Amino acid sequence: MAKILVIDDERSIRNTLSDILSLEGHKVDVAEDGEQGFKKASESKFDAVFCDIKMPKMDGLEVLAKLHDSFPELPIVMISGHGDIDTAVESIKNGAFDYIQKPLDLNRLLVTLRNALDRSTLVTETKTLKKKVNSKYKMIGETPAMLKVKEMIDRVAPTDARVLITGSNGTGKEAVAHWIHEKSNRASAPFVEVNCAAIPSELIESELFGHVKGSFTGAVKDKAGKFEQADGGTLFLDEIGDMSLAAQAKVLRALQENRITRIGSDKDVTVNVRVVAATNKNLREEIEKNNFREDLYHRLSVILIHVPTLNERIDDIPLLVDDFIKTCCEEQNFPVKKITDDAIAELKKINWRGNIRELRNVIERLVILCGNEITADDVKNYANVF
Length: 386
Prior knowledge:
Blueprint: E1 3-7, H1 11-23, E2 27-31, H2 34-43, E3 48-52, H3 60-70, E4 76-80, H4 85-93, E5 98-101, H5 106-136, H6 144-156, E6 163-166, H7 173-182, E7 191-195, H8 201-209, E8 210-211, E9 223-224, H9 226-229, E10 234-238, H10 245-257, E11 259-261, E12 268-270, E13 274-279, H11 283-288, H12 294-300, E14 303-306, H13 317-332, E15 338-339, H14 341-349, H15 355-369, E16 373-374, H16 376-382
Parallel strand pairs: 1-2, 1-3, 3-4, 4-5, 6-13, 6-14, 7-10, 10-13, 15-16
Antiparallel strand pairs: 8-9, 11-12
Helix pairs in contact: 2-3, 8-10, 13-15, 14-16
């Protein structure tokens, strides 16, 4: 059931729409002019609005403009008379979801409402999903080492400069890459991630550059690679230190020429991609061992961001623990648990070889195994698993 507002100065139209929508199971409120309609829409939450164009006190276009400014995701369907079609079309350009011409067509009315509500639901679900994604990649920390990382992200993100993120496993390199994308001009475009260590060397080129049908056994149809999928957005090459030399050569060409070629094809595909890479290896040592191309290193490392280990930012542990406890309790449907100062002090003594990832796992273990309050003894009993 949706809550619908009908704004129209004609009583017959108001009554007709109210009856039709009520029969469909919706809750309907009505307003007899634009001024009253805007007031009701401002004071109560509606899922959709039907608004006449020509009305006293405040016409429909003014109502549309004000509602669109205040509630940009609220679907507004304009009701137009025969002579108002040009105006109705103009209203679409100014943010209206659709328009319906008088006399009202029942089928058109219900289809339009259904589409409007479907879009509204999709927008809500997308925002919820985006919120979950953003919460997964939080940048928590106020120590000098973390403030330096945050400052670098803020300075670099608005540019198209390539970034190489270094740091040990579990420090949060992926979170840094996500925030560079989220704060960039490409935030509305795709963020495509490739874990170079998880893909077999014989498949990495197909994964990155795509292939055409019949180019190798198993290539049953054309497939776009990650470079094409990330066109206009950001391509995150995680664990790039594990990429084969053959794939490195092709990545270098893609960065130099902004073009890629699918396996089995002789046609170039132009791509507009910002590349952010990450590694837990010392690439300069890998270059000395002839495991990594020096020219690719210089292409990738226009900006270098080093993510500190948890042992280098011990004073961030209270903030991290507080966030992890809330998240874990929510995931497990537990009331939010407390942790004592002595327990925090014990956590600070631990050598965090697994960094943020290890701390997160320890907190989840404590949330599950301990009572309503996590104590120092709990940390001593359950934190160390080696």
